[in-house]
Every structure is written in structure tokens, then in C-alpha cells.
Amino acid sequence: MAFRGRGRGRGGYGRGGVGGFGIAKQEPFVLFPDIELPDVSSVPEEKNLVIRNARLQNYWKSSPYYLEDIVPRKSQSTDIERFSDRVKLRTTLKRDPLEQILRLTSNNFPLELVQGMKGATHNKRKVQWNPESDMQKLELFEKLEKKLEGQDEKGGKEKKEGENEDEDDEGGEEAAEEEFSDDGDYNQNIDFDDDEDDFNMEDDNDDEATY
Amino acid sequence: MATQYGVQLAVHLISSHFGNLVAKVCDCLLRKGTLTLASVIRFTELPPQQVKSCILVLIQHNCVQAFAIQQEVGFGEAPRVVTQYMALFHNILHRMRFAKFLAIVSEELDKECEEILEGLLQHGRLTLEQILDRAKSNQSEGEPVVQDALRESFLKLVRAHFVERCPASEPFLAPPSEEETPARKRGAKSAKLVEEPQTIEQRAIAAAAPMDAKRFSVIINTGTDVDDSPNVTAGEKRKQDALELDKETGASCEKDVLWRANFEEFVRCLRHKACIANVKTRLDDGAAIVLSAMLEATRSEEKKVKTENSVPLSMDTIFEGVMKSEAGRSMTLERVRGSLIQLGCAPCVRGAAESYSVDLKNIIELAQNDEVESITLKRYGRDAYRIFRLLSKSCRLLETDKISDTTFVEKKDTAKILYQLWKDEYLQMEKLNLHGSRQSQFLLWKVTKDTLWGHVLNEMYHSALNLSLRVAYELEQEQEIIQLPREKRVGALGNRFERLRKVRILLESSLMKLDDAIMLFNDF
């Protein structure tokens, strides 16, 4: 143990010289080492392809298919909650649960996968086809996209707010499990866990304290 | 080919699209091969429910195929059927080029078709009902969506074979029976001597695929049957009749049919484009126009993507096709004939008509050679390029001095270059010891295309991975700038935003171009 500690301190030299190990040269770790790059102008700009790609990627990041790691809420907030955190939370996305969009029948998926999942029957909730992805990312290509894009974004946002209220009404058996507070619009944007995923069932209802 | 960097690239793609959890499961399947659910849970050390969700996502997006197989059990026990999951490496890589698929549909069909395809690419699989529902919710204010027009667009996509029925979710593979051995005995006589027995994965894919007649057939609830197999052979007609009988019982479950983008057709289109582009630069515009007309006319008849020769066509059909295109309108019959000769297709006389067919495999090989030679030139210089070209054309072992003489490169330099190329795995080396009047050792060098192509492909995957990682890194660095509303992006912040935009366009365009090369070695 002590020897190992000594060896580390000297950067790998130690008594191991006899064994064929020389001094290990310690190089600083560079994430992207400089290399000779080809001429920038020789690359044909495929703006159309890049835009389409960006649109797809933005969709997936906010889709129900993007499965997040479960991090218990308590461990996240060891620091004092700052005002800027609240702003950050507002932009966190509310995803549809996976069961809503997948047709979980044994025709479409292997039986053993479908058996455990809730909502094996088709969910009555409306699917969010146009989730409120980071609209700012789309603005990255604003100059290149058609003007209609801007109108569509607005329409999409309004529809989403409308759909949220629809979801509150439709409730059904999900409402009992969700412990969703009925303060209407006031809690719309706080990252409140109201989906019926198994993943988030462990969560306490911490946010009751905030209002 | 799932090489080391290919797997890393695939996992990176899944991770950026679906998150780290799904990527972990995908990584496990790619590295360890086909596994059962229990094995995946054990290897990934994730909770079972999460693993199930991850696999569901992967199946939904056509990245994993499940199949049921009978497990061998001990004496006296009833045979158990287990479900196994295999990763579909090529389908995962196709995710890099979804934008190209959308571009193809945008060119060949129309905007509505493109939007339907976008939905299918976003979600992996959808029923017709979901497609219509999505289009309705996406409609903009001034343009209400007409259901019939949407169905028509959907049918256009299916007719063009850009959209197909999803494969079976869990086909059962019967255990290999006694029939195998007689087939092997017969095999000695047949021409296909070297036909390897199918792996279990290949069998699963074949078993899951929908029947040819059903794959592109849409049955709408209104009762009208839309079939689009233009060449209805006797066998297929019988299948169609069987379908008709099933229609009444099956009509109710037709609306639950899942549809997906047919990657095969898109790859075929891109392959054709690559051939045409190669011919255009290597020969001339005329030859490119003729080839383009031929391939367009026969695209729906090609059986598999990597067909060696194009489907034979008569001179009249070719000429008709050429006349249809704008660029070809001014070409005379003689000119078309000349182009056909340039393309190297000698007329093949079958019966009364003579037909022409282009060797596509040859064109692809030439394109691949060009690519590797260009890499050699850029990386090792002109002398190395000459040496490499000599070796790859001669296809046999050549000795150092001989190479030096033929290419007019100094012996010392030749030896250095050959050694460098060999170290980087571009060449193979063999030593030859001659015991004659004096002992001498000769070094012989050779280019082996198969191993070299695999090596080049792996390097390309590595480059693509690096490019993707760099783009992700740049975006992450400027995360705050991206989230700022437009009004605040002025001055220094505005400049950073502009820089990021340019960087992103440049890096991703490079990635698209690199992907063309990857497809050339992997898919074409």
C-alpha cells in the first residue's frame, strides 16, 4: 500500500525501472488536439440537410422516446435554491409518457415486454405531436428557414397550453395516482411530476412546500 | 460491418437521440450480440422495468428485432421458447442520414409526403390513424388538412416503396431440421458452392419480413383495395386472392397496421445517385443522362440493393426514358448508343430483342478505388499514391525494387513509403528468403481489397464519431447563448452565436459528405 502511494507521488517512476518501465511522460489531457485541417471552402454547404437534421434532433430530445436517468429529486437540491434555478426549471420539458405513444399490444411488441407495462390499452389522452422543444434552437437557422416557421412555432405553443388544460379535465383513473394539484395555470410551468411513469413513482411531492 | 468504431458511432447516435439509458442497452446488444431480456438486465445492471422501456424504444425505432426460439433443455423437460433480441447495426447508422431520405422524397414527391415521412422518421412506426392525427395537429392556420389528400399522399409514398409495413414483432424460428444435410450434399454440384449457412440473425430477419405481396399493400377502411405490385405473377395473384378473402375478417385489424420508412429503397436511390455522379465525372453528361434514365425506369424491379447489374432494358425503352428527362431531350439515338458503349454495356440478345444492362458493381468498385486512392494521395503524398495505385491494379505481390523501377520513385523513398503504408494497414507484406549463390531477403507487397476496405470503413466511422462529438461539444459550450431570446443576442453574444451557427453548418455538412463515403463502402 505504502509503496503504491509512493509510486503515485513520483508520477510512476519508483523502483519499477528494472522491470522495463521508464519514466512515464505526463502529457496534459487535451480534448481536441490541434491538427491540420483541410480548406474550409472545399466543403459544400448542405444547409437543407443540416436544417432537417436539426429539426429531427430537436424533436427527439423532447420526445417520449428520450428516456432520462432517474435521479431522486432530493439529491439534486443540496445547494440553496436560487432564483435562476427557478428560471431553469421553467424550461425543463414535460414529456409524454412512453405508453401514450406506443401501441403496446402483443401484435406490435414481444409479449414479455408488453406484459409489465401499464396502459397496455390505448391511452385516451391526446398525443403531443409537437412538443415545446427549445424554440430557440430553431432560431439558430431562422435566416435560412421560411417565414412561416415563426407562425408555426406560435401556433404550436398555444396548442400545447390548450392541450395541458385538456389533460387536466380528462384525468380519469390517472388523476388519483398523480396527486396533481388543481391550481390551474399557476403551477403549469413548475417542473412538477405528474406523469404516470413507473420511474417517477418514488418521488415525494416536494413541491407542495413551494406554494 | 460492425467494426469497433462503427459500434461506438452507433452508440453515440442512440445516446444523442434517446439518452444514456437506451444507449447503454444498445451498447450491450451491439457488443455482446443477440441476448435474452434476462441477459441484458444482468449485463447492464439496470432495473428490469427500465431495460424493458429501452428495448421498447429501440424496437419502435427499428433498431432492434426480437425473435422467439426454442431453447435446448435437458432430457425429460418440455422445450422452452425464449425471446431473443438482436441489434440492427445498419438501421442505427441510417439515423445519421434521415435528412437525406427526406430530401429524396422532397425532390421526387411533394411537401405533404415529406411531412408524412418526417413523422415516420420521428416516431419510427405509426399507424395510418396516427399519421392522420399528427398531420391534423400540425396544420397551420390558413391551410386546413384534407383527409383524402393526406391519404393520397400516404398512398404515393407506399406506391413508390418509400414506406412499408413493419416486420413481425416476434417471429418463431423453428429449430434447424434434418433437411440441412441433404442440401449440403447437393451443394457440391450446384454453382452456389460457397453459400454459407444462414446465421440465426439472418433467419430472424427473413422470418420477420412481411410477404412480398403484403409489404406494400394498403387496404383502406372504405373497402377499396389498393394493390401496387405491377408485375402480378401467378403466385402473387393467388396471394392477392387469399388477401381478398382475409379482407373481411382482417379489415378491422388493418387500421392497427404499423408502417415505417423503407430504408432499403432510400439506400437504393442513393446508390443510383452515386453511380450517376461517378459516371458524370468519369465519362460525360450524356452517359450520366442515359444511366439515369435506365435506373429510374427499373428502380421498382430491382430485387436487392446491391444488385450487380441493372435490370435489362430494350433500346426503345431506354430512348423513351432519355427523351422524358429535360436534359436528354436533345439527344439523338446515335448519341444514346454511343453512351451505352461508353458505359460498357454490350447488347445482350434475348429472342428477338436486344437488351442493355449496366454493370453497377463495377461502377461502385471504381468509385471505391478512387476514394481510397484519394485518401492515400492526401495523406502520404504523390509518390505513395503512385505506388499504391500500382499495387492495387496489379492484385499480386510485387517486390520493392520492381515497384521502385515501375513508379520511378527512389529506392530509399520507396522502402520508407511501403513501410509506412504497411504500418497503417494499407498493405500486406511478405518476406521471401532466397538461398542461392548469395542469401538475400526480398520484401513483397500487396493490396488486399477486402481487409483494406474494412480498415478504411473503420477509419471513416472514427472520423464521423469525432465530428459528431465535436458538434455536440460546441453546442454544449454555447448552451446559454442558444437559449437566449433573439433580442438579447447582440454584440459579443451575437458574434458567438454567429460563430456557432457557422461552425455547426460546416461540421454537419462535412459529416453529410463523409456519410456519402461511408455509404459507398458499407451500403452500396
From TrEMBL, chain A:
It is found in: Nucleus. One of its GO terms (biological process) is transcription by RNA polymerase III. Residues 145-211 are annotated as: Disordered. Residues 145-162 have a biased composition (Basic and acidic residues). Keywords: Nucleus. Transmembrane segments: none annotated. Belongs to the eukaryotic RPC7 RNA polymerase subunit family. This is DNA-directed RNA polymerase III subunit.
UniProtKB/TrEMBL annotation, chain B:
Keywords: DNA-directed RNA polymerase, Nucleus, Transcription. The keyword Transcription applies. One of its GO terms (molecular function) is single-stranded DNA binding. Residues 8-67 form the RNA polymerase III subunit RPC82-related helix-turn-helix domain. The keyword Disulfide bond does not apply. Residues 372-438 form the DNA-directed RNA polymerase III subunit RPC3 winged-helix domain. Component of the RNA polymerase III (Pol III) complex consisting of 17 subunits. DNA-dependent RNA polymerase catalyzes the transcription of DNA into RNA using the four ribonucleoside triphosphates as substrates. Specific core component of RNA polymerase III which synthesizes small RNAs, such as 5S rRNA and tRNAs. This is DNA-directed RNA polymerase III subunit RPC3.
